[in-house]
Amino acid sequence: MLKHRWNHNTNYHRLVLESLPSGARTALDVGTGDGLLAGELREKVPEVVAIDSDSDVLDRARASGADVRWVHGDVMTHSLELAHYDLVAAIATVHHLPELSEALTRFADLAKPGGVVVVIGCARSSGIGDHLIDAVGVLQHQVLSRTRGFWQHTATTVTRFPHTYEQVRHTAADSLPGVRWRRLPLFRYALTWTKSG
């Protein structure tokens, strides 16, 4: 089944799902791509909106049949309801957006008070610590791709990321005071932030 396909992004869906606030009623999947996360969120949340600027990939997501509101548009400019979502999630998306700090601020504006913003992102390694974690990621990739199979998503791929992990960490701290930062294996980081109120 589509939702069980594995790659470096789907590996971290569980981090998003585990971050859902208790009693969550609304969720926004930013840069939904093939729509796998949106489908998983819909199993737990009554109202899920999934937005993507790529109409072709969004059409493939719609074909999943998930009871999700699929939106073709740019999250930065589309008329989404402010302070509405219990969860705003973005996986491998923010490096496609023009300005990281503006993207994080936009996500915060879309979250309701008590809502959670979760970003699983990609960045460039710049220090020995990053390279050591990358080495773990290489080994993890080898094991998991052999045991689970590696599925290549259909969304646009970026080969050169605009920020280093360290730059992301500092920008996130400035944009989302109190954000929790984690460097993950499989060449990812996680940002988790709860909106006060």
CATH homologous superfamily, by name?
Vaccinia Virus protein VP39
Shape: globular
Report the end-to-end length measured between terminal Cα atoms: 39 Å
Rg measurement, Å? 16 Å
Number of helices: 6
Contiguous low-pLDDT stretches (5 residues minimum) are none
Order of the strands making up the biggest sheet? 3-2-1-4-5-7-6
Q: Which architecture name does CATH use?
A: 3-Layer(aba) Sandwich
Our count of domains comes out at: 1
CATH fold field value: Rossmann fold
What is the topological layout?
Elements: H1 13-18, E1 26-30, H2 36-42, E2 47-52, H3 55-62, E3 69-72, E4 85-91, H4 100-110, E5 111-121, H5 128-148, H6 165-175, E6 180-184, E7 188-194
Parallel strand pairs: 1-2, 1-4, 2-3, 4-5
Antiparallel strand pairs: 5-7, 6-7
Helix pairs in contact: 4-6
Q: Could you explain how this protein is built, in words?
A:
This protein is of the alpha/beta class and 197 residues long. The protein is 32% helix and 23% strand. Strands 3-2-1-4-5-7-6 form a 7-stranded mixed sheet, sandwiched between helices. The radius of gyration is 16 Å and the shape is globular. Pfam families: Methyltransf_11 (PF08241).
